[in-house]
Structure to design on (102 residues):
């Protein structure tokens, strides 16, 4: 479990809100397109834990420039998995906050 400050939480909430509106501040749009155009196998539990560490690290970094720099240093496979998990978080947030269901 990770402990985050109020400022970090506010930043994460802002990023999620922006992504829900289509503004993906941390991710290059071409990377997002590649991630979702490729059909990949599901992650193992161990792989998911490794990616979780990257997301936790990302949250603790101050400033979007530092976060983007961290992402740019990840191996492509890890970056793609971070993007998938991030968008899963955004999707879950939308589901939880949207009261209108079809």
């Amino acid at each position: 479990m990770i402990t985050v400050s109020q400022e970090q939480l506010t930043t994460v909430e802002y990023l999620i809100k922006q992504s829900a509106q289509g503004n993906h501040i941390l991710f290059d749009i071409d990377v997002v397109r590649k991630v979702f155009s490729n059909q990949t196998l599901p992650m193992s539990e161990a792989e998911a834990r490794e990616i979780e560490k990257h997301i936790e690290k990302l949250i603790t970094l101050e400033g979007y420039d530092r976060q983007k720099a961290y992402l740019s240093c990840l191996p492509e496979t890890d970056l793609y998995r971070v993007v998938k998990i991030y968008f899963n978080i955004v999707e879950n947030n939308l589901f939880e906050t949207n009261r209108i269901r079809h």
